[in-house]
Amino acid sequence: MKNVVACIARDRNQAERIVDKLKAENFPGSEISVVFSSSSEMRDFAVNKDTKAPEGAVAGVITGGAIGGVLGWLAGIGSIAIPGVGPLIAAGPVMAALSGAAVGAGIGGIAGALIGMGFPEYVAKDYESRVKSGNVLITVHTDNTDELERARRIFADQGAVEISTVDEQGNFVREREQVYTGPR
Fold it and tell me: Is residue 102 scored above 80 in pLDDT?
C-alpha cells in the first residue's frame, strides 16, 4: 500500500492551481488523481484552453480520448458513471480503482475506492459527497514519506481543505486546521 494524501479543492480554479503546483514540484502525473463531476464548467478543466480545437474535444474527454489542459499529463483520464454519484471525470490511481473492483464492492464509487486505499468509511463518504456537490478531490500517491509531506504542504499552501493522509502502515490523519463552509 502506498502513502496517500487527499484534499478537497472548492472549485476548478483552485484545483488547477494545486495540480499546476504539483506538476511544477515534479510529482509524476501517474501518481496524482483528480476526480470531479462532469459539469460543463469542470469539463473546461480538462480541455486545453490555448487551442482552436473543435468542440469535439470536450466529447473526447468524456469518452476518455486524448486531452490537453491541466489534466492532459495525468494518467488514465476518462469518464465513468457511478450509480448514486453520477457522471464523473477522473484521472490517476483513483480512476483505476473506480473502474475496477471498487465499483462492484458493497460500497462502490469514490467511497469504495478511497476505503480500498485505507481511508476510513466516514471520510471516504464525505469526500464522495463533496465531489457530488461540485468540489474536486485531489490525491497524491507516493512511496516516499517526504513526498507525502511535501504534497500535504502544497495542498495547505494552496488553500485546500479536508486534507487527509494514510501512510503505508494504515495510519490515518485528517487535518482540521481549515474549516470549509462552502457547498457540501
Answer: no
